[in-house]
Amino acid sequence: MPPALRLRDFxxxxxxxxxxxxxxxxxxxxxxxxxxxxxxxxxxxGLVGLAEFVPLPILALPAGQLADRVxxxxxxxxxxxxxxxxxxxxxxITLAGAHKLWPFLAIAVAAGIASAVTNPAGRALTPxxxxxxxxxxxxxxxxxxxxxxxxxxxxLGGVIFAVEPVAVYITAAALFLLAFVTILGVTARVxxxxxxxxxxxxxxxxxxxxxxxxxxxxxxSLDLVAVLLGDSIALxxxxxxxxxxxxxxxxxxxxxxxxxGALVAGLLLARRPLHYRAGPTLLAVVAAFGAMMIVFGLxxxxxxxxxxxxVSGFADMISMNIRSTTVxxxxxxxxxxxxxxxxxxxxxxxxxxxxxxxxxVASLIGTVAAVVGGGAVMIGVAASWRRLFPxxxxxxxxxxxxxxxx
Length: 406
Known about the structure:
Growth Hormone, Chain: A; mainly alpha; single chain
């Protein structure tokens, strides 16, 4: 067992994250099927995604402040309680026939609120209960829980939905409830910001800290720019249907390949954290991700495409591990929630806007050109970041990092 999982509190936090991830991915499958069945319009799926994303930028700063002023495990528990209620409401909507779109949009907004509130506190909770020397392993294990949910959750949800749609939501509610109970078992800790006046300066302290800490700004902005411009997995349906001609089964394999690679990398990092200089490694794996996108874009072979996507997921997991561990180690305890909230906005924005950017560019210059060009841009970004953010390029081993002054 990885050393971090031998810590009782982290084992409880990890179990909560795992069950929460399974439940969320099960809901994604069920909601997507029901929403598309209402009007047979893919725009409805986009509207649900947009409704879930909108609360995040609005609530990010208040949620970060909340995570720094209130016991973090209770904030996470509150978000999970909202998820239990959401799953129960979805069961009621399904029993009523699920013939209208607006209930799903309202549910998506509620889910977005729960995510915006829960994530900063959950991410900031890890360094409270894990010593610095085990933090990189703990971050990797946290990502393993996420990737396991992505790989297993949709398949499990699809099987249950095929048998009985309402059962998906009942199962998800039970998993959310288990995550709720588990997180409450984490030993209470008071590692929050000192009582200060609630004003704009306090709310935006996380933004100010990231802007002042060039190494941190470089790491977070690198992920944003690279994923926004270079990650083309959103175009997998086009490759499956018109380029590789592998049908829906092949599409499922293409979508799962990055998560499979990321899962392998996460398991390796959990057992053996990186012992190389983190800054150069981060730039190298981002460039490797871009190279794999070029291979994927040019490939006309399903095995080669799957291999390229799996390697891209492997590289992306290393990148994410370095970035997240750096954020947790460099940020002082009293700012963990507010900095994590800003980081979460960057991550979500890159994923959501990246999918839109991939589709827009592909419609203008063609799918293959968009993917290959995006990969080339990622390589160029990795090279330019070395000059734009010298502190990031000089960053040493993760176990050498210390909190910067607030």
